[in-house]
Amino acid sequence: MAPQVEIRPQVFTQLFPNKIESKVLSRKPVPRIWNLEDGFCIAALKSEWYKSMFAIQSTFFHTSIDFFRGPQLDYRYLLVPLTTGSISSPMGLGSDSQPVSVKLHGEDTYLADSQQFLLEYALRYDDDVPGTYYVGTSCRGEDHDSTHLNQFYHVECELRGGLHEGINVANEYIISLTKTLLEKHGEIIKSFAGSTRHMTDLLKLAARNGGKFPMLPLEEALALPEIKGGEGIMWEYTVTGRPECGRSLTRRGEQALVKRYGGACWVVEMHHLSVPFYQAYSDGSERSTARCGDFLLGLGEVVGCGNRHTTAEEALAALGHHGVDPADYAWYVDMRSQKPLQTTGWGIGSERFLSWVLQHDDVRDIQLIPRLKGQTCAP
């Protein structure tokens, strides 16, 4: 069970004195120097932004560790390798990113795009462990932009239970992280964001919803008046020319939902062929929707959460459905034959979350040391 971070609207003044009606101030400038390549390191040392980011990222890390290792969760940390033979974004229907292939010691392998598979595996070691987690770097091969990085700082966990158990833990994590950053770095955040009102508003939103955030199925989101008629603007077909593979929200569509629901919301039950094969089906034999969800905040999706297939038969059926060669994931299927287990996992990219904290529009400015495709940067 997740730690209970109870925040009632009537006690906000005691929790955050002088932060509730935070007025918008003039904002310190953000240097926007991520594209200086080898000139970045000296320029960044002269910047108040990067000095502040160093402090905020440290708090992000320690707050994350404290959340998972606290007595109410008591999740076990997994030390993970940099490479993997089984990418969690396979080249099949629903793949949402490109893997990074490397040759290491003469062998072809990949830099890990996520540690989800290892977390699923590790959770089967010990029946008494309620969950496992890690904090580290994930690598993706697509071109970088204002919401995508080639190497980003990832917090991931896997826990026993269904989708809503996973979402509840993610909600508590977001609340805990927001509260701690506000307490420890409120003045710094205000100097760059102009206000901390967005953070207190998020906590109020959770308080009004019993410690949770608004939630709606994707189909309901797509039917909303501001979304419905916006093909190519608010939503798009996941696979061009194949409407049977489902639809997904664009960044603009995600931001419209964030506005409608008061700053944040969950969108759940995506079309199954628009997400990777490993997400469980939410509608049984229909096989049209997935038991997964995205938490939308700031620039758009910040947390991705999904319930996994329990049995080998379910995983095999999904691999076939998505056109992925089962031989590439034989170990994943065999693991379920050996130990069927219902688990749910989620991950959050720190740079997207901190972009929201600082009310900034480009995740590339959040990295202390840029690592971007097509650029060199020392050190």
Characterise the protein shown here.
The chain has 379 residues and is of the alpha+beta class. It has a single domain (9-365), classed as 2-Layer Sandwich (BirA Bifunctional Protein, domain 2), CATH 3.30.930. It has helices at residues 12-15, 40-45, 48-69, 116-122, 163-193, 197-208, 218-222, 225-228, 251-260, 312-321, 330-338, 350-357, and strands at 76-77, 83-84, 100-104, 107-111, 131-139, 151-160, 215-217, 235-237, 247-249, 264-268, 292-297, 300-307, 343-349. An eight-stranded mixed β-sheet has the order 1-5-6-13-12-11-10-7. The protein has a three-stranded antiparallel β-sheet with strand order 2-4-3, with no helix packed on it. The protein has a two-stranded antiparallel sheet with strand order 8-9. Helix 5 packs antiparallel against helix 6 (197-208) and helix 10 (312-321) runs antiparallel to helix 11 (330-338). The protein starts with 11 loop residues before the first helix and ends in a 22-residue tail after the last helix.
Keywords:
379 residues, alpha+beta, BirA Bifunctional Protein, domain 2, eight-stranded mixed sheet, disordered N terminus, asparagine-tRNA ligase activity
Spatial gap, N to C terminus: 42 Å
**Structure annotation, total helices:** 12
Structural class by secondary-structure content = alpha+beta
**Count of DSSP strands:** 13
CA-based gyration radius: 21 Å
> How do the SSEs run, as a string of H and E?
HHHEEEEHEEHHEHHEEHEEEHHEH
Uncertain regions spanning at least 5 consecutive residues: 3-21
GO molecular function: asparagine-tRNA ligase activity; ATP binding
Pfam family, one: tRNA-synt_2
Domain Aminoacyl-tRNA synthetase class II (D/K/N): 50-372
Organism: Colletotrichum phormii
